[in-house]
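Service request form, structural biology core

Requester: graduate student, group of Dr. S.
Request type: structure prediction, single chain
Budget code: on file
Notes: please return the result as structure tokens.

Sequence provided:
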Amino acid sequence: MDYSLQVLSVDLSTRTARQARLDTEISQRYLGGRGIAAYFLSRNPTLAALDQEAPLIFATGALTGSRIPAAGRMIIAGFSPLTDTLCSCSV
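Core staff response, request fulfilled:
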């Protein structure tokens, strides 16, 4: 089965957006939601939470869009200004 996540990167300073598909290996390892958010945040672990380059990630779970009840969840994640570690909430 070919499971690969789609990514939409939005740069607010230049008002541009770019769509891409992640490698199957990364998609299968992190699945979506909090896992893929942690993957993207770990790519720049030294950024301060309030840095303009610090990402804010909106990621759906692997089951979003399926017929499974309550599977339509998503994660909003970023660096915490209090602890400079991963901070996320599920909505």
